[in-house]
Design goal:
Elements (H helix, E strand, L loop, with lengths): L32 E8 L2 E2 L6 H11 L3 E7 L3 H11 L3 H9 L5 E5 L2 E11 L12 E10 L3 E7 L6 H8 L2 H4 L3 H34 L8 H18 L3 H8 L8 H67 L14 H22 L4
Parallel strand pairs: 3-7
Antiparallel strand pairs: 1-2, 1-3, 4-5, 5-6, 6-7
Helix pairs in contact: 2-3, 6-7, 6-9, 7-9, 8-9, 9-10
Length: about 350
């Protein structure tokens, strides 16, 4: 939510002084906090909490954890949370500005993980679509007794995931690491959904490319290739962070949660193989389209050459008999003109038949 300038701070130019704008009104942190909750023994505690009250309550109890969800906070608003939870300034900067590749970093006793979210954009046909894959970002700060998620984009909401986890306290008893696993699993499941839709688009595109008189151009396939590349940039770099979490990269991930990360990594491997297959298929389709264009051009050139050869016969006859000589064959014979025209027509028909037989026409 952008800061709104005060109208009272505007001054006119009637008095000869330049207009001045008052400092922007600060936006409260609550405008960026989607949800803030305390979980004890996997159960969500009732009440509304600020981030300071929530972490104080958890640490006084000596059990449970805090889950805070933020949506596109700015530097000023997230700084209060960063100070309260001891978040590293470099990780905070990455969380605010986004546009990061998937990664996993450790700062003292805090993990910082970046995941790229994807959404399939519905369209009538891949050959006419303006966008197929839309991306966003999810960042997560994981500590011993807290997890803070930062969301960028309008399609990567976690409200439904939080509601599902609230109904499964057994999973949340493993602590904030179980939330990180649920988020990673949620993101990778969306990868699978997008690849399923993309596979249908690939089949349709392949059918269109090899259809007679296809209107699919190389530019259309390049567009599809760019969309697959967008998905690839989200999927491929995530493999290393998931493997590190599954292999005991930090004590913040309990042993019982690591096995779940291995399952997510298996699903990601499946997605990666399918995305790589899409890329190879599109490369093949580009080559096939260019080959069809080359073949069509060669066919057109052969037709043009064939008709030029046929037209050359009457042109030669007219050129020869158009010369001003008295002693030309059959020049003064009354059947000379029909004879010459018949010979020219016969040669043209013969050439047409030969070229047609050889499929030049």
């Amino acid at each position: 939510m952008p800061a709104i300038p005060s109208l009272g701070g505007l001054r006119g130019r009637g008095n000869g002084k330049p207009a001045q704008v008052a400092p922007p009104i600060p936006v409260p942190l609550s405008a960026y906090v989607v949800d803030c909750a305390i979980y004890v023994d996997g159960e969500r505690q009732s009440g509304r909490w600020s981030h300071t009250e929530a972490i104080k309550e958890v640490r006084e109890r000596g059990t449970g954890f805090v889950w805070i969800g933020l949506h596109e906070p700015d530097e000023e608003q997230i700084q209060g949370i960063a100070d309260t939870f001891g978040l590293h300034e470099l990780a905070v900067e990455d969380a605010v500005h986004a546009h990061q590749r998937p990664k996993l970093e450790r700062y003292d006793e805090t993990l910082f993980m970046v995941l790229k979210t994807v959404r399939y954009v519905e369209h009538e046909s891949p050959s006419t679509a303006n966008e197929i894959v839309e991306t966003g970002e999810l960042m997560a700060f994981l500590g011993r007794d807290f997890i803070i998620t930062v969301r960028h984009g309008n399609h990567s909401g976690l409200a439904r995931l939080r509601a599902e986890l609230d109904r499964e306290p057994d999973q949340l008893r493993h602590g904030p690491a179980s939330v990180l696993h649920a988020i990673a699993d949620h993101v990778v499941d969306h990868y699978l959904d997008v690849t399923d839709h993309l596979e249908e688009d690939m089949d349709e595109m392949e059918t269109l490319v090899f259809a007679p008189r296809s209107s699919v151009t190389a530019e259309t396939i390049y567009f599809m290739k760019r969309e697959v590349l967008e998905l690839r940039r989200a999927v491929m770099p995530l493999a290393t962070p998931l493997k590190r979490l599954a292999e005991g990269y930090t004590r913040l991930i309990p042993d019982e949660v690591r096995s779940y990360f291995r399952d997510v990594d298996d699903h990601l491997t499946n997605v990666s193989e399918r995305v790589a297959g899409f890329d190879e298929l599109l490369t093949t389709l580009v080559d096939a389209t260019l080959a069809k264009i080359t073949l069509q051009q060669n066919t057109d050139m052969r037709k043009i050459t064939a008709w030029a050869g046929i037209v050359a016969v009457p042109t030669a006859g007219a050129g020869i008999y158009g010369m001003n000589f008295d002693f030309m064959p059959e020049l003064h014979w009354q059947f000379g003109y029909p004879l010459v025209m018949g010979v020219i027509l016969g040669i043209c028909l013969l050439l047409y038949r030969i070229l047609r037989k050889n499929r030049w026409l």
